[in-house]
UniProtKB/TrEMBL annotation:
This is Inositol monophosphatase. It comes from Roseovarius faecimaris. Keywords: Hydrolase, Magnesium, Metal-binding. Its cofactor is Mg(2+). InterPro entries: Inositol_monoP_metal-BS (IPR020583), Inositol_monophosphatase-like (IPR000760). Mg(2+) binds at residues 68, 84, 86-87, 208. GO terms for biological process: inositol metabolic process; signal transduction. One of its GO terms (molecular function) is inositol monophosphate 1-phosphatase activity. Belongs to the inositol monophosphatase superfamily.
Length: 257
């Protein structure tokens, strides 16, 4: 009797070929278009998402698909996969290796599984609700840090926060023991793996958030909006990831002033 392929195995297989595809385009000449919000998109974004869609249609035909580049297919279905083919297209375009591939699996709007793949680093993080998280197959967990003064803090989209929330920015740059400015999904992956203690992020779409939140929470962390509210399937905007409830409360105090 042939064993059924698990959802985690499907997700791992998707991450593998999506990473291989993006590496074929990385640091090579690309055609670049700009969407209505001025975010860039390349043939790599489209090719990777199309390949993921083809795989899901073949192997999980009763599941829906929501991708950054081609929208929603099967919106009414209970089971939904959310795809960000290249998280950090600006990083990708500039040859920066910290672009990612994001994939989330939802049931009735609730994330049950998330993937953060870093193609240029050959890293794949997978988190499953109630079952923990792994990095390249090895278990990972968030740190036990509870004190903001001793924490490693990453600030994503710092220039946007500075421009639109100057007071928040001023408080953030005085918080934590170590601060780094960054972009995209990798700081959240570092948090899930226990290297970073808190990540403040801004101006995100659902396909940026759902996989990240699933991995971080499976690793034992907390992801909410800046007011501490849980994230819904369609949420877009600002988020914060933290390793412990104590640190989460502390960073919410910083954000609220």
């Amino acid at each position: 009797m042939v064993r059924a392929v698990t959802l985690e195995e499907h997700a791992e297989q998707i991450a593998k070929f999506a990473s291989e595809m993006s590496r074929e385009f990385f640091r090579r000449p690309l055609d670049v278009d700009f969407k209505s919000d001025e975010s860039p998109v390349t043939q790599a974004d489209r090719a990777v998402e199309n390949a993921v869609r083809d795989y899901l249609r073949k192997h999980l035909p009763d599941h829906g698909i929501f991708g950054e580049e081609h929208g929603v297919e099967g919106e009414e279905r209970r089971h939904m996969w959310v795809v960000d083919p290249i998280d950090g297209t600006r990083s990708f375009l500039s040859g920066h290796p910290l672009y990612g591939f994001l994939l989330a699996y939802l049931v009735d709007g609730t994330p049950r599984l998330g993937v953060i793949a870093m193609p240029a680093l050959n890293e794949v993080l997978i988190g499953t609700l109630g079952q923990g998280a792994t990095l390249n197959g090895e278990p990972i967990a968030v740190s036990a840090q509870t004190q903001l003064n001793d924490a490693i803090l990453y600030i994503n989209e710092g220039e946007k926060i500075y421009r639109e929330h100057g007071g928040v920015f001023e408080r953030l740059i005085q918080s934590g023991r170590t601060r780094r400015f960054s972009y995209d999904c990798y700081p959240h992956a570092l948090l899930a793996a226990g290297h970073v203690d808190v990540v403040v992020d801004y101006d995100l779409q659902p396909y940026d958030i759902l996989a990240v939140s699933a991995v971080v929470e499976a690793a034992g962390g907390i992801v909410t909006d800046w007011q501490g509210q849980p994230l819904s399937q369609g949420y877009s905007g600002a988020i914060v990831s933290a390793c412990t409830p104590e640190l989460h409360r502390s960073i919410l105090d910083v954000l609220s002033g």
